[in-house]
């Protein structure tokens, strides 16, 4: 006996049976049972991934606020702007958020947070060296930029390889891998904007109003 399983309709299954019977097989093929399995498992996985991402994002925001004070609040605002802009870009392109795509989006959030941490740690180093807040702020953004740029460019090279836009046979062509690479790549590009431009603008505005404080 032989069994062929898959997501076939009745017509497709009957056609496949006829094609197999017309071939070189020495025995006839008969459809014994056909079963359709819904997408519940995939839906549950997506929902759990979104929940995990939201929990992780909340923990990151709490960490940033506890560790960097009001700078952490500004970074959280920039992170929220990053999320909104990224989702808007997904809608414009458009991008379908599959399980792998959600994973790429969550990873890009982590990289966006990394940029803010590098900047704030550099600012703390400049303050520890005795520089004034305004000077420490500008030096922190300027000197952290090289590290942020190099790290993100290296990741974008990996994204290019994973996405494989030219369909090279020696590279991966899986749709899931490409979905992961696409959302990650978009997130990285946007995080460069929000990490440097948005966060820097927010810090400058709060510096002028005298509301900014840092934790040593």
UniProtKB/TrEMBL annotation:
| Positions of transmembrane segments | 49-66, 73-93, 99-120, 151-168, 180-203
Write down the superkingdom of origin. Bacteria
Pfam family for this entry, one: SecD_SecF_C
Q: Where in the cell is it found?
A: Cell membrane
Give this protein's Gene Ontology molecular function annotations: transmembrane transporter activity
GO BP annotations, alphabetical order: protein transport
This entry carries the following GO cellular component terms, namely: plasma membrane
Q: Where is the Protein export membrane protein SecD/SecF C-terminal domain?
A: 29-206
SUPFAM superfamilies in alphabetical order? Multidrug efflux transporter AcrB transmembrane domain (SSF82866)
InterPro entries according to UniProt: Acrflvin-R, SecD/SecF_arch_bac, SecD_SecF_C, SecD_SecF_C_bact
Chief subcellular location = membrane
* Membrane disposition: Multi-pass membrane protein
What keywords does the record list, in alphabetical order? Cell membrane, Membrane, Protein transport, Translocation, Transmembrane, Transmembrane helix, Transport
What this protein is called in its record is SecD/SecF family protein translocase subunit
Record organism: candidate division WWE3 bacterium
